[in-house]
Amino acid sequence: MKKKKDSESLAIDILTFLTGISSRDGDKFPVLRRAIRAVGQQEERGLLLAVQELRSDPNPLAGPIADYIEVLPIMTLFIYSFLKES
Description:
Layout: H1 4-19, H2 28-40, H3 49-56, H4 62-85
Helix pairs in contact: 1-2, 2-3, 3-4
């Protein structure tokens, strides 16, 4: 996306949906939003770069959020292979 704000907004929508973190969550949502905004300011941008930003965040909630995002592709493949065998 060409507009940084649009891409940040889309990234927030995608990652809040996938992680189940609501914008009303006063603890986790600001941590996730901060990571996405930091990535949005970089030359190279992408959803998985938010994981690196979360890992560098000293907030104790950031690590578990990063872990969950990293596990999503693995969970998806596992579910797909399980359903395929059924």
